[in-house]
Amino acid sequence: MDRNKAYLAAAAAGIPLLFVLWRSARKPSHPPLPPGPPRDPIIGSVRSFPPNRWYESFSEMQKKYGDLIYFDILGTKMLVINSLGVAKDLMETRGTIHSGRPNDVMNISVMGWGWNFVIAQLGQFHTDCRSILKKAMGQQEMEAHRELIKEEATNLIPELMHFEGDPWEIIQPRIGAVTIRLTYGDSVHQEYGKELAKLNEDTLHLVTSVSVQFWLVNFIPALHYLPDWLPLAFKKVGKEGTALQEKVHYWGWELTEKHHKQGIAGPSIALQYIEEGKNTDVARDALGMAYSAGVDNTASALESFISMMLLYPDVQKKAQAELDRVISPGELPEFRDRDALPYLDASWRESQRFNPSTPLGVPHTASQEDVYKGMYIPKGTILTTNIGYMCRDPTIWDEPDVFRPERWLPSHNPNAHLLPDISFVFGFGRRICPGMFLADEVAFTFAAAILQAYDIVPLVGDTLPKEYVYQDAVIRRPEGMRCRFLPRNPLPSRGEYY
């Protein structure tokens, strides 16, 4: 990161001095900017911007600067939002202004993710992609997918039998199976499921690496047009990223088309659009991102929940006792049982609060200048929501650093009805995750099935930490988490669900 800062500072030094002096001499004609670290001439906030672990750094800076923290990095303006109320004000109440996306040259132009509707600007393409996913994965559509989710939960359970280690290698492909079967069909999953899961994992690793670094091309976009043979880091990473995104973009769809021609394609969202012959390009783009963006986020949330059950065995035992009262031995719980499992539901929500998988969300931008509570927000400002801090904001949560599912239960907390809906971990306003209902249903169903079937315990000889350190990534999961799954109930037969 120090090298990145050096590059940025060197590039900034090339700005004509007279222009800088002229800009500095001008008196601002707008209200004051939000508070933030001191800004140097020319380079702005480069020296004060955290080099890594942005979520933790922004949360620490909140103590000094409050709900809003303003940075100016070589002219790129950034506003970190630490307040849930402010995030809702800007991104929901004033959503027509604050729902854009940054012009990320590295991702969009260098790596070729321009087809990714998640980072696309508002417009017809963005609207069409979201409409396709809402039609396929909206809250009203979940009933149609529950049998598939139940099947994959059933498949997961025997795979965990006496497993020792990091369960990511099991839960991530199994969650991926739900999405692959739903988007591209059973035949594609049976033949190419492992390869598609590996592709997603490789893509996530690269996107994570790119997302936690400064790239000079984002500040000087003209660098993108330099010859590819030049030994520039962003050129090398761009080639690797282009190859991965093209495969994510086209491969699953092309496999479905191939199986359709062969007459072996199973029912899927992709097949529906292929057979109709309408909006196929948009559907292909939307489904490519549904798999790429959704699987790891959901798997990370589930792995975090497993880690909390490992660290808090008393919570695990209470949730299991509730399951035993509601679910018959040898059966697995289903999502429709959720209302009858209030303690498990509270434990799931508390896990999401304690360690949201995307603590900084996906940045918005201001499409025009705005004034909020007397503070000026320039046009083009990147808005980063510190969801992780909001989840532990002491003005919202009593003892926010304590893992306590009971806070969600009216029987234990008379103010439970005043707590915010934890769905804000999926984003805000027009940019809220369109696959949130599928993600929540899959993860909760899998979590309930695991607790019904197994005790989650440490490896023999392992000493558990007080709290796990989480990866420094866009989508985070606990590092070094290892456990065993010891059967506690007769395992259900796979055949009873087919």
Automatic annotation (TrEMBL):
Family matches, as InterPro entries: Cyt_P450 (IPR001128), Cyt_P450_CS (IPR017972), Cyt_P450_E_grp-I (IPR002401), Cyt_P450_sf (IPR036396), Cytochrome_P450_fung (IPR050364)
Positions contributing to heme binding: C433
UniProt-listed Pfam families: p450
Gene3D superfamilies, sorted: Cytochrome P450
Cofactor: heme
PROSITE patterns: CYTOCHROME_P450
GO molecular function annotations of the record: heme binding; iron ion binding; monooxygenase activity; oxidoreductase activity, acting on paired donors, with incorporation or reduction of molecular oxygen
Protein name: Cytochrome P450
